[in-house]
Predict the structure of histidine kinase.
Amino acid sequence: MRTRTSTDTGPTSGRRRRGRAPRLRPHPFGLRTRLVLAFLLVAAVGCGTTAALTYRAARNAILEQAQNTAVSAFREQVDALYVSLPVDPDSLRTDLLRIARQGKPRPWRVYAEYGTVRVSSTDRPASTVITPELRARAQARDATPHAGFQRVVKNGTPYLTIAVPAVFLTHVEGTARPTGLVLYAVMELNEEEAGIEAMVTAARDGALPALAVALVPALLAARGVLRPVRELRHAAHSMGRGRLDTRIHAKGSDELADLARTFNESAAALEHSVAELRSAEARARRFASDVSHELRTPLAGMLAVTEVLDEDAGSLDSDTARAVRLISAETGKLAVLVEDLMEISRFDARAAELHTDEVDAADCVRKTLQHRRWTDPAQVVPHLAEGVRARLDPRRFDVVVANLVGNALRHGEAPVTVRLYAEGDVLVTEVSDRGPGIDPEVLPHVFDRFYKADRARTRSEGSGLGLAITLENVRLHGGTVTAANRPGGGAVFTVRTPL
């Protein structure tokens, strides 16, 4: 199967091509290595099995050929032998020497046993190679005597031992009867074993080139399998970087082709789902932005009216005065909510801009506290390191400090401590309170939009967006903001921004 990754071209294709998938790094025991080793293992097992079977068949053939030739020739020699009974040792030795010289496929050492008489063609009357089992079979008298043979290894040397009993034929029944004389032939099988060893050596020497030759198709097979896998990896990496239009061209009908088609179907479904989600999110953001913008004009008029009503509330009856003040307070809250919604909409639309300047960080914090009238030491206690210069957007840093201090005053207990100091090349701003702290289950969600720790509490003094706006402003500065509980009680928010 051949596969190729492709993507649709569009206005953003040039920008997207910058994020290329990284090259596959070789792994010591990666898929390629395992495939090659498996292929070589199969080849080695095949070569070994073939060599073993060939060795076994060839060994049996070589030994059986030598064995059959020797047994047949020795039997013929014994059948043609004329011996007078009782045997004459000197005459019998002459016959044994003649038989030994005529041995096939090579000369034998011949031994004869008749009762206690032992005669041989060598300088030893008996052989230690002849086993008791072969001797007992050849000298059996309870049945018709049979010739026998054995392959024996003595002191590392292989031998073929043959036993043929001499018989005579009865004139009455025409059956063979043993005479008591048994002839043995002993032949070394060194030449046959040498041939077998040479065959084993040749098989072993041929196995290494065979494995080397098998390495070539192993590498080709591994490459054929890894190419579509690599392209699938690149396609998955492209999708992870947001290129949901990535597709793979697949040919063939094997499992890898099915995998490529499944990937394409999943990618198409994912692209469709993400497009719908993005469209819905864009509509929601546009709706919030449009509604917030449209509410600003009537809210401005309502705020102007409520200010006038607040001034005249003292001349009204108590019920009407309470209603007027409630309307004024709720209108103010609505105005804050609308402003926060518009601010968060700018962040969502990535329209928020950062206008930094080198400022005195402590002076910025003091101005924030003074503008909100948080100058009472019983309410807010500042600990500001002097002379710390930082590149900040004064307006957005003011929002960060104001939101954190206001949140501490509303949900914690006074006094609220504001600390500012430099830590290396980082500006650290801490806002802590003396309240009960934040529930551990709530901590991961304190910066979520409209999150309420108490689900039963439907209304609050804030908009529910203050900490979310704080988080976005800190991120815009390239910093971080975290929430935690102090060991001695109370919550602490820590802002870290580069100097």
